[in-house]
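Fill in residues.
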């Protein structure tokens, strides 16, 4: 009896070739598993493509709500941005897919799971660490690390084996997309001096120029409405991707530090992610106490590193998520964002839990700050430095 393997299947070049390669070269029965995390596309086409490539079965799993509420939202609570630039687009979807790989392997009695990641990418780490955390007994196969194909070789292999694909040699981009954004790499962009080709962008093609505004409502850190219209989180992200993207906002062109020790030029489109993080951060500015806000910012950096490095299923990430959720108990209110060509910016924020006290902050006649207290506070605050200066620096 042949062994079964569950392949994380995107419908792209590498995973389509992997279906045939696993069956032909290693005699596996291949179950293709496609997880919908908001990447769009026709999953019936993907299903037929997997079957045409040789899969014995195809599982299509709608995980959009799970992805948004169980993975994106905790990351929004943390204002998660790797290296203060990247809103963890692909990093966030990998633990969701790993979870469903393990569950599908159990359903089909498979002895192994597979992914289509390269040997120098981050995603191999995210998949394999996640899988081993969830089921250490599963064998993991990484065809792209083994077969030694260049991208052109994979295209040739697909053509020789009648595998329907969408990649071509003149547009050899690797694209990964989900609710939280879109990642593009390879091709001309491997030269960090070369500007990204204009045709790589889809979410941030500017179609609007008239300035406008959007009001986002938050309840305990969670976005719940746009312009006072209640919506679920998936719909909020979808709508803001369209709205912000239509102004050309949301592009990131960066050279990032991969977990495997190399620098990589990456281009992202993440209009909703960047806009929501901006709005959420602005609301925290008026609702978080100073020391809590400062410590949270430090831990946000660590939280983002854990996600980027594939450690979603780790005790530290879980502990940090518990802390981040605690900080959100008063992060409720509204943030107004201004929209202009290629720009989204905060233009207002308000909350019934705001720590901004007008009578303490104002310099007008309503000023309630006790100025007479300041002299003693400042003297005691600087007493250590004053003593050091008097006794050592200016001792003579």
């Amino acid at each position: 009896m042949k062994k079964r393997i569950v392949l994380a299947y995107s419908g792209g070049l590498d995973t389509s070739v992997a279906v045939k390669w696993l069956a032909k070269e290693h005699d596996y029965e291949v179950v293709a598993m496609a997880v919908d995390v908001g990447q769009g596309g026709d999953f019936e086409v993907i299903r037929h493509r997997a079957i045409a490539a040789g899969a014995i079965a195809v599982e299509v799993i709608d995980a959009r709500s799970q992805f948004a509420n169980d993975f994106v939202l905790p990351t929004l609570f943390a204002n998660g941005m790797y290296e203060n630039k990247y809103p963890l687009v692909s990093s966030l979807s990998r633990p969701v897919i790993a979870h469903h790989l393990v569950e599908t392997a159990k359903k089909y009695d498979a002895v192994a799971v597979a992914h289509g990641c390269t040997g120098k990418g981050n995603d191999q780490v995210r998949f394999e660490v996640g899988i081993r955390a969830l089921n250490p007994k599963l064998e993991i196969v990484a065809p792209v690390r083994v077969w030694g194909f260049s991208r052109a070789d994979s295209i040739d292999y697909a053509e020789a084996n009648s595998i329907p694909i969408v990649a071509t040699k003149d547009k050899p981009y690797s694209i990964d997309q989900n609710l939280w954004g879109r990642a593009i790499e390879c091709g001309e962009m491997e030269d960090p001096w070369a500007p990204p080709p204009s045709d790589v962008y889809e979410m941030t093609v500017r179609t609007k120029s008239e300035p406008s505004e959007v009001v986002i409502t938050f309840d305990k850190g969670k976005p719940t409405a746009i312009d006072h219209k209640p919506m679920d989180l998936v719909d909020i992200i979808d709508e803001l991707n369209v709205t912000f993207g239509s102004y050309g906002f949301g592009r990131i062109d960066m050279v990032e530090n991969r977990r495997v020790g190399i620098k990589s030029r990456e281009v992202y489109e993440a209009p909703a992610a960047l806009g929501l993080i901006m709005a959420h951060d602005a609301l925290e500015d008026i609702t978080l106490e100073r020391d809590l806000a400062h410590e949270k910012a430090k831990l946000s950096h660590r939280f983002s590193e854990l996600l980027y490095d594939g450690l979603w299923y780790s005790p530290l990430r879980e502990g940090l998520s518990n802390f981040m959720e605690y900080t959100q108990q008063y992060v409720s209110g509204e943030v107004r964002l201004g929209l202009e060509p290629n720009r989204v910016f905060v233009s207002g924020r308000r909350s019934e839990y705001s720590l901004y006290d007008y009578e303490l902050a104002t310099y007008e006649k309503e000023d309630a700050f006790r100025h007479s207290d300041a002299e003693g506070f400042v003297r005691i605050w600087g007493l250590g430095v004053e003593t050091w200066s008097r006794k050592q620096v200016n001792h003579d």
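The chain has a mean pLDDT of 94.
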